[in-house]
Amino acid sequence: SVVIDIKETHVSRPLPDPASALTAFNLLRELDVNAILPNSPPAGWKESVLASGKYGDAKVDYLLEGEGISSFAAELQGMTSCRARIELRLVPVPGREVLFAKAGVGAEVDLVEELAAKAALEEATREAIDALIKSGSKQFGDDGS
């Protein structure tokens, strides 16, 4: 099981409904990983997960935490371009030592800046999750195919 905590910031204004955490959640679920995406977690939940390896009644093996940032990049022929970067860390729990840390970048274009930013964050998240999976496959003897 993996519990997910990814914060994101858009440079010019806040974006509702973080795209990175939802993308990570869906990608992990597609791989049959029991992913937990806290909706309204109680205060101190992350410290509790790191100390106990549990989120509520659920046993948790890893905490996937990170930060993402997106920003306006350019206006191209009436379309808005945004770029994003995300950094993810995979922490076995209970514990606090980072097992893997990977980054991803993305760029997308849309008529609306907020949608371009979210799409860029999604692309960056897919890249970072893919890099985490490849790192894990190499460490645990899987050829990654």
Give a verbal description of the structure:
The chain is an alpha/beta fold and 145 residues long. Helices cover 32% and strands 38% of the residues. The chain has 3 helices and 7 strands. The protein has a 5-stranded mixed beta sheet with strand order 2-1-5-6-7. A two-stranded antiparallel ribbon has the order 3-4. The radius of gyration is 16 Å and the shape is elongated. The protein starts with a strand and ends in a 6-residue tail after the last helix. The model has no long low-confidence stretch (mean pLDDT 90).
Please tag this protein with its features.
elongated, 145 residues, alpha/beta
Alpha-beta content class: alpha/beta
The largest sheet is: 5 strands, mixed
H/E element order: EHEHEEEEEH
Percentage of β-strand residues: 35-45%
The global form is elongated
What is the typical, i.e. mean, pLDDT?
90
List low-confidence stretches. Answer: none
Helix percent reads 25-40%
Distance between the termini: 22 Å
Give a brief description.
The protein has 145 residues and is an alpha/beta fold. The chain has helices spanning 19-30, 45-52, 113-139, and strands at 2-10, 35-36, 54-55, 58-59, 62-76, 79-92, 100-110.
